[in-house]
Write a structure and sequence with these properties.
Blueprint (H helix, E strand, L loop, with lengths): L7 E3 L5 E4 L7 E2 L4 E3 L3 E5 L7 E8 L5 E5 L2 E5 L10 E4 L5 E5 L2 E7 L9 E7 L5 E7 L13 E8 L3 H7 L18 E5 L5 E5 L3 E3 L11 E3 L12 H4 L2 E7 L1 E2 L6 E4 L2 H10 L5 E5 L2 E5 L6 E3 L7 E7 L2 H12 L5 H45 L9 E2 L2 H7 L6 E4 L3 E8 L4 E8 L5 H13 L10 E7 L2 E7 L6 H6 L7 H21 L3 E3 L8 E3 L5 E3 L6 E3 L30 H16 L16 H11 L10 H4 L2 H14 L10 H9 L14
Parallel strand pairs: 15-24, 26-30
Antiparallel strand pairs: 1-2, 3-12, 4-9, 5-6, 6-7, 7-8, 9-10, 10-11, 12-13, 13-14, 15-16, 17-18, 19-25, 20-24, 21-23, 22-23, 22-25, 27-28, 28-29, 29-31, 30-31, 32-35, 33-34
Helix pairs in contact: 9-10, 9-14, 10-13, 11-13
Length: about 675
């Protein structure tokens, strides 16, 4: 061990065979040089010395760069220092880039010190900041307290890492999303001692309860705004906005518009996709989950963030109780109600039998008439008209629930004396979205006929009771098939499901009498029959187009994570929104995981499309197929499917292929060009 801290292995002639200065960890010492290709790697935390998330490299081009995972966030090129052949830590405390015998400039140039008075080190800390530290050699050099390492003045880069990550971009000027500085749904703030702190956004809680810093991100402490269809005013009332001053979320606006502050707040409350609205100088920008790279700083004057959070369940119950309160005592209401019943009971009994008889005769005719009037464009209907009582008995009082949506619930039932299983969809909301969903679903599916679509058998339209009867799919949904087991489903079945879903969409877009945009393609809406044949279902959000129509303008429809970017831009909607959703589902089928998984320890893996593109770019598709030996044996098909999915999920709808080309790409008939980063087009 030499006096400068270099640990050396030498031969008998004192020739250095190995030295620790050539293989630094997270720290440099005075007189130590960081050479081209060498790097520093931060520790995981102040007390955990395993490798952390940050890295500092003197690259072959001479640029000294700080990285979070694969993304640069500070470098000497941007500070106009140029490139050097090595970076040297001088005893005076300066850290310089050097080229040959010349000095290019300081990476850190603090106030000069007396080397005899202090020990020194420069470390890439666990928070990603490169700092120079001092330690007094004698107690006489300590002004207050005991001797300890402390950060030297003007000796940190970057000086405000929160601000740095708020503006950093990756390759091709794409904003940094895959690896935010703080975890998803959290924000960064500089403490009084100039160190960054990560905190959960108000209304969110740490994903790791035993970790003070939410590096793995935060989760909502409330039930998120349902986004299965257009949000109603009633649903919006379950949420409120928390105002935070001097907070900015600078990237990934899906909506940017000139509005007043109140309009901005109301717009976010009604929008089921809005998680945060940022207001500054008459401009409203909305962000959706997962939130990334938020920060708070006193210099962000005039910027307000309005964070949408669910109301306290107790308050919701109180509001409902308040609505039902009439100002009358319970006993008074009981007496008055009893008198009214006694006065009416005889009259009601006389009319009841007559009324039920007339209603029963008229209900069947009226429901068919109403359906026909609502959907005259779809032609002759070949559907069975069920009585509500008949379906109530078939489902044993709606006993066995198969699935649930925002405005409907699906139950298992049996017809033909228990011989024929069916799926009965009951519309729970009888006005607004529920009424619209019922009409849309009948209109969309009644004129279709394709082996990859679930068949509608009949309906019930008795006043408040609106139900749809479908053939029963014994193997459940694709979501259960992919995510319901720890073992990987059969690769061949997954390929057939992908092709079947693609063919169903091609039929809806190009081969059906009326062009149909499904608007809600996701694993929960792809069902599997006895042979695991894919059957697309749930047309409640579908949009029907005329034969001469290729696009339409409508409100946001779909499910979070599968919705194409153009929905948020209020652009005209085409069948390419289904192509985008199919691309997301295709990646889920290949990888057997959900498109967003906030619980993953590796932040690069949280958003599936980002993870898949990075692994494709590196030629490491095998990393997408953990414990999936079947798929690993068919890597060419896997590559073809991944490339197809990356083209389908391009941000620009014009860059996405139509479903006919998608099928040709999946089959290997059409050569697939190299896909660009989906978010960079």
């Amino acid at each position: 061990m030499l006096d400068d801290g270099n640990f050396v292995l030498a031969d008998k002639d004192s020739v250095h065979l190995w030295e620790s200065f050539d293989v630094p960890t997270d720290t440099l010492l005075p007189n130590q040089a960081l050479k081209k290709g060498n790097s520093l790697v931060s520790r995981s935390s102040e007390t955990n010395y395993s490798e952390g998330r940050f890295q500092a490299i003197l690259r072959d081009d001479g640029n000294f760069v700080l990285f979070l995972m694969d993304f640069p966030y500070w470098d000497t090129f941007s500070t106009h220092l140029g490139n050097g052949s090595e970076m040297i830590f001088k005893e005076s405390g300066s850290i310089y880039l050097a080229r040959g015998n010349g000095w290019l400039g300081p990476v850190i140039e603090p106030d000069p010190i007396e080397p005899n008075e202090f020990y020194q080190r420069a470390s890439l800390d666990s928070d990603g900041v490169f700092r120079r530290y001092l330690y007094p050699k004698a107690i006489s050099n300590v002004s207050v307290g005991t001797r300890t390492w402390f950060v030297a003045a003007n000796s940190s880069e970057p000086q405000n890492i929160c601000a740095r990550f708020a503006s950093v971009v990756g390759s091709n000027n794409v904003p940094l999303r895959a690896s935010p500085y703080c975890g998803f749904n959290s924000y960064c703030v500089m403490s009084d001692d100039k160190k960054p702190q990560c905190k959960c956004t108000p209304g969110y809680v740490n994903s790791e309860s035993d970790n003070e810093v939410p590096i793995s991100g935060c989760k909502p402490s409330f039930h998120p705004h349902e986004c299965n269809e257009i949000s109603s005013e009633e649903e919006a009332q379950n949420f409120t906005l928390t105002e935070v001053l001097n907070m900015e979320w600078p990237q990934f606006d899906y909506f940017l518009h000139k509005e007043t502050e109140e309009e901005c707040k109301e717009d976010c409350l009604r929008d089921c996709y809005c998680a945060v609205a940022v207001y500054q100088q008459g401009i409203c920008s909305k962000k959706k989950q997962p939130l990334t790279n938020g920060w708070i700083d006193p210099l962000l004057v005039g910027i307000k963030s309005f964070i949408k959070v669910g109301k306290d369940p107790v308050k919701l119950e109180a509001n409902r109780s308040k609505k039902n309160h009439s100002g009358m005592s319970p006993n008074g209401a009981l007496v008055l109600g009893s008198l009214a019943v006694l006065n009416l009971i005889i009259f009601s009994a006389v009319l009841l039998a007559y009324f039920l008889l007339i209603r029963r005769k008229a209900s069947r005719h009226q429901s068919v008439t109403n359906i026909s009037k609502s959907f005259p464009e779809t032609g002759e209907m070949n559907l069975r008209n069920f009585d509500y009582k008949e379906l109530e008995e078939a489902t044993e009082g709606f006993k066995e629930e198969l699935g649930r949506g925002a405005s409907s619930t699906v139950y298992k039932g049996f017809l033909d004396q228990g011989k024929r299983p069916v799926a009965v969809k009951r519309i729970d909301k009888i006005v607004g979205e529920g009424e619209r969903e019922f009409k849309t679903e009948v209109s969309a599916i009644r004129g279709t006929n394709h082996k990859n679509l679930v068949r509608l058998l009949g309906f019930c339209n008795e006043g408040q009771h609106k139900l749809l009867v479908y053939e029963f799919m014994s193997n459940g949904s694709l979501a259960r098939f992919l995510f319901g087991s720890n073992s990987k489903p059969n690769w061949e079945k997954r390929m057939r499901i992908s092709m079947g879903t693609a063919k169903a969409l091609l039929y809806l877009h190009e081969e059906c009498n009326i062009q149909i945009i499904h608007c809600d393609i996701k694993p929960q809406n792809i069902l599997l029959d006895d042979s695991f044949l894919a059957r697309v279902s749930d047309f409640g959000l579908a949009k029907l187009l005329r034969l001469d129509q290729t696009r339409t303008v409508t409100g946001i429809r779909g499910t979070r994570g599968y919705v194409a970017p153009e929905w948020f831009k209020k652009s005209a909607i085409t069948s390419k929104v289904d192509v985008y959703s199919f691309g997301v589902v295709l990646l889920e089928i290949v990888c057997c995981r959900k498109n967003v998984e906030l619980d993953l320890e590796d932040e690069n893996k949280i958003i599936l499309s980002d993870w898949a593109y990075d692994r494709y770019r590196e030629g490491r598709l095998d990393l997408l197929l953990e414990n999936d030996e079947d798929a690993k044996k068919d890597v060419k098909t896997v590559e073809r499917f991944v490339k197809t999915a990356l083209w389908c999920t391009q941000e620009d709808p014009l860059a996405r292929p139509c479903m006919k080309k998608v099928i040709q790409m999946l089959e290997g008939v059409l050569e697939i060009p190299l896909p660009p980063d989906p978010s960079s087009v």
